[in-house]
Automatic annotation (TrEMBL), chains A, B:
<keyword id="KW-0378">Hydrolase</keyword>
<dbReference type="InterPro" id="IPR017850">
    <property type="entry name" value="Alkaline_phosphatase_core_sf"/>
</dbReference>
<keyword id="KW-0597">Phosphoprotein</keyword>
<comment type="similarity">
    <text>Belongs to the alkaline phosphatase family.</text>
</comment>
<dbReference type="InterPro" id="IPR001952">
    <property type="entry name" value="Alkaline_phosphatase"/>
</dbReference>
<dbReference type="GO" id="GO:0004035">
    <property type="term" value="F:alkaline phosphatase activity"/>
</dbReference>
<dbReference type="Pfam" id="PF00245">
    <property type="entry name" value="Alk_phosphatase"/>
</dbReference>
<feature type="signal peptide">
    <location>
        <begin position="1"/>
        <end position="22"/>
    </location>
</feature>
<keyword id="KW-0732">Signal</keyword>
<protein>
    <submittedName>
        <fullName>Alkaline phosphatase</fullName>
        <ecNumber>3.1.3.1</ecNumber>
    </submittedName>
</protein>
Amino acid sequence: MNKRIATVIAAGLLSASTFSLAETPQNVILIIGDGMDDQQISIARNYLVGSQGRLTLDAMPVRSTAQVLTVDNDDPNKPVYVADSANSATSLATGVITSRGRIATTAKTDQSITTIIEMAQQAGLKTGIVSTASVTDATPASFIAHIDKRFCEDPSMMIDGLMHGRFPIECESYTKANGRSGSISEQLAASNVDVILGGGMQHFDIAAEASDKTVLQQAVDNGFNIVTSVAELENANNDSKLLGLFSPSTMPTLMRGENGRIAEAPEKSVMNHIYKYLGEITPPPVMICEDNPKFASMPTMKQMTDAAISHLDSNQGFFLMIESASIDKASHGRNACGSIGEVQQLNAALDSALAYAETSPNTLIIVTADHGQAAQMIPEVSLFSNAAYGGLPAATPGLIARIKTPEGSIMGVNYATNESFAEEHTGVNVPVFANIVGQDVIAPMITQPDIFTITANHLGLK
Amino acid sequence: MNKRIATVIAAGLLSASTFSLAETPQNVILIIGDGMDDQQISIARNYLVGSQGRLTLDAMPVRSTAQVLTVDNDDPNKPVYVADSANSATSLATGVITSRGRIATTAKTDQSITTIIEMAQQAGLKTGIVSTASVTDATPASFIAHIDKRFCEDPSMMIDGLMHGRFPIECESYTKANGRSGSISEQLAASNVDVILGGGMQHFDIAAEASDKTVLQQAVDNGFNIVTSVAELENANNDSKLLGLFSPSTMPTLMRGENGRIAEAPEKSVMNHIYKYLGEITPPPVMICEDNPKFASMPTMKQMTDAAISHLDSNQGFFLMIESASIDKASHGRNACGSIGEVQQLNAALDSALAYAETSPNTLIIVTADHGQAAQMIPEVSLFSNAAYGGLPAATPGLIARIKTPEGSIMGVNYATNESFAEEHTGVNVPVFANIVGQDVIAPMITQPDIFTITANHLGLK
């Protein structure tokens, strides 16, 4: 049979079988690899499955790319070319392009924007959030809360707070005293999200604004069952709302560099300091990635995903956002092995989501990133040297992790966007993957706000 | 009507109409943006059509990604994570993974590998090459020639040649005197490719090995009509083989930085030199991109593409490779505007290819890159500063071009992979685009050797 005809017939059969399943609920699982651009995926692939291997996400049947769009806060008609996780998550959660740092509020005019979770709740669907960051961090927060500054995470930040411990930020106008909804943790505690799992206990185990209770106690009063360990998570019943907080802030990464090492500067000889084309440059020693001992007591992203899906599975349909946060956070900190372990976690969580979709075939699974990140794979032997004569390393002006992969080669991961304490994001468009349910609704190139629209359409919310 | 059923019916109609066109020839146009990873495309998009705009390649109906695969020359079982243009073009041209620097020869064992152009010629199809590099450069060469070192470009390099004017390379064993085929330009001059257009006159207007003729004269003797200007190109008849050489080496780029500027180092205050968290860092002044005066007399990539297609169009079918070389070369030289102009040229050449495919609908058009490149879009105001307090620039340890785009914002393009005279490639997987003809034959993720297989299958060569 002609291959094209066979494809058409197969598509017809698939349609027919889908119709018989029309009674199964419409669900969306949105998996966000924070900072998971194609460099991060390629780096993780080389380490986890080898350069010719395929990650689960590589094998997804639908592939697209998303334009990451940001605007200036003073002039929202003016584009800004590099996003942060707050404005990009706001695009994904609300369909509205905003300015950096904003949690589901509009640029300049500072209006709250209804999120996909709020819309889903309104329509009687179940909702959930899983993150390896603090659940008050920008990505999860943008699906639930509304505030103009992502760093207003808990009541302690609301008066005279310092971002990164150094830059003053103004959160006070968002306090309940000023007629607003208070800090992000307070907004989460007051929410009706069915399941929230991740890190960030320090933002809840703290006195709430103008209250003799902690934010955590407020969450309990609002009907949340609190779990803080793997055992409690696995034994939690599905009858009440669930808030799982497994670490004070960001959850530790699954993997780390050998003995905790991160990317390091090449060592330059005296002659090379005098003139850059002279003298020797010695790259840092090779390392392997190893299990991060701090991760030991943590639930995996897959365990949190399984628990969340079990909590949300019903005839009502659900929206679940799952974030692998430390692809980004580890890249800011030049910790290539940390990012690799987070891609591994995302991949395992995706396996769970795909297995669930086998049993609930109207489940649309979308995997994407919120923005690009600094890490770049660069040559172990410079292209501008001659291996036959010894081969010079690529003399990065930044910091490099030289990682020996299980397949026995050395992979150089370069970080060189900012000499200061952390690396920057990049402005590249980001990959989008989907299961077969996304086939007819995700074009080869979309924008981040389109992901909101696709999600809302699938859930029947528009 | 149900949307899915409508899609199936539409696909059926499309199939039917395709069958009636089964008599039109099977052609492949492979467009390679050298170094055109997603960063390069995003940078060019922002400048050329704005952050919310779409390039022609963004709008292609089929999108995939390709794993870039390289092996070690001493141990071909060992992966190398960053390719050069020679080994990646060899993957595309032959389906065989090889080591860096090799032009259609096997790693370690140094055997010639039959290229798609040689297979097409054997089957009676027409063949062509267009490049904005010297036609002897790695990408075009890998489709026609066979030699283990890409820098053996002409007879002058064959004895005591120096790569980049500094590293000795051994080409002598490939001389005709040693029973081989000689330098790359000599192999091109001896070929039966129907049309070869690009730069590189200096590699032809030079004494051939052991001959009183130049390589160019040898090409004429072999039946090539030589053209060297736009007028000659447009007036060339299609009856004989055509060799167009429009510049001594790489063709100048369409665009350049303001007054020829490229990326520059931020200026650091004395205090900042003492300790990196102190004192001021002043980023280089903003620039615009401008027309490159050196480009004025050059044919555009679109003009070369039109001429090549006109030369190749027949009932026999053809294979045409078109390379936008200086996305890569300008990025090696930290010239962001140069790369942007080359993406613009590629996009315009793609417009021509798509217009041709309208009239010859069995034409498969694939656009891809050979490897990643150094350029990264980084924030104009660091993520780790506070715009409300003035906003610090991202303090790159590398070099940065701050480009004012036509939509009025500033885009930072960072280069920081090697402090030496040129930037490095990166190991990221690269985008793949195709017209609708590629819909059923290009999976969401492929390898570079798969592109050879897809091409060969479409041309009926397997």
